[in-house]
Amino acid sequence: MTTFDAVLPLVTQVLHEHASGLPAIGPLLVNRDLNGRIRLIVEEARRTDPVVMAALTSICDQLQQRLGPHAYPATRAVLFESDMTAALDGATAFPLEGFEQVRVVDRLATESDWAHIAPESTGVPRVVFFSIKGGVGRSTALAATAWSTAQAGKRVLVLDLDLESPGLSSALLPAERRPTYGICDWLVEDLVDNGDAVFADMTGSSTLARDGEIWVVPAHGRDPGAYVSKLGRAWMPKMQTNGQRESWSQRLNRLIDALEARWQPDVILVDSRAGIDEIASSCVTGLGAPLVLLFALNGDQTWSGYRMLFQHWLNAGVAEEIRNRLQIVAAMVPELGAPEYVDELRELSFDLFTEELYDQIPPGEIIGERWNFDLDDEGASHAPWLIRWHRGFAALRSLHSRLETVDAQEVQAVFGHFLNGLNNFTGSEISPS
């Protein structure tokens, strides 16, 4: 019985067996529809070529036999398009390994597009805080980073994009300083060209800043209102007046650009949704962030989750576009057995990057765009930035009051190694002195 994971390997196998006929077919799209069924898309001009039609008939017969329910009947397995570019519109597409002329078009039921890596943003640095699972201290680390950056006299813009589990704003803003609206409100209002009505009152200033400023854009406003109903519409694409479709990721970028122009921050910190979903994909791959922090606990769930994501980038042919933006963070390093814990986490992280994202060349050598690193290279993506577990920072609920009384020495003890890594990235002092 053929299942989903076997489909593309079997397609590859069939196309290799018909390699001699592929040049006549020309550009070929392997279209995987919303149900996971395979069709081929070929240029309309090839329809009248008997050599091409014979090759396509043979290929489709084999696909029907080998793919079973994941293939269309051979008589309906080919679509002819006059504009092959239009056939790619709104879909994830990636090369089929081993074939220069063949691309896979993956139709997804969600706006999630982990295979599209946005170019690095040209404005101020954007740092995304991401984790495969929740409960790893990601939002706490972001709050501490904002506090430390502001202590160094910088202007910080914080976005709570964990829309389905909001809470970062309560860590940085007292109740009386929370704005009327939030990101979810803007996304919904923007669908009806009413975003300006909420834009001016969706940012709150934190009292935690001393020498600098912390501006917080929460997931929702002071009164969430009909939040569940709004959330169900927040990531809708928008049809512009010129007929063009704007994805929710593009809309989000437009919002961040406007916030950056309004507040002129030195750095933008983004709290991403955990897991592999639409919101997370936009944060990790769609915002053009030059640094994506991958929070990790030393457990099977962490490494299996990141491996699935890395393999997806590798299979989609975009690994080289994203890998140098990634940085592993060892979250909540235990007080007891810390050296052993960190050593094991480093080794597992190294294995993951080596097997999935690093090039197969001698460690430490850079050949053109190809790169690799030694296990102990502190500048490598796999080398973890450490955050130590501390009882006083374990509960996000009390973090605002905690940061009101915390001193730089205590923050340095818990987050120092992590903040030093951010210092090296931004080229400016954000770690407490």
Description:
The chain is of the alpha/beta class. The chain has 2 domains: 4-106, no CATH class; 126-426, P-loop containing nucleotide triphosphate hydrolases (Rossmann fold), CATH 3.40.50.300. The chain is 38% helix and 17% strand. The chain has helices at 4-17, 22-25, 50-67, 138-151, 168-172, 183-190, 196-199, 227-234, 248-263, 278-286, 300-315, 319-322, 338-356, 399-405, 408-426, and strands spanning 28-32, 38-43, 78-81, 92-95, 102-106, 126-131, 155-160, 204-205, 213-217, 238-239, 245-246, 267-271, 291-296, 326-333, 366-367, 370-371, 385-388.
Low-pLDDT windows of residues: none
Overall CATH architecture of the largest domain: 3-Layer(aba) Sandwich
Largest sheet: 8 strands, mixed
Spatial separation of the terminal alpha carbons: 62 Å
The strand line-up of the biggest sheet is: 8-9-7-12-6-13-14-17
Tell me the CATH topology of the largest domain: Rossmann fold
Sum up the structure in keywords:
433 residues, alpha/beta, Rossmann fold, 2 domains, eight-stranded mixed β-sheet, five-stranded mixed β-sheet, 38% helix
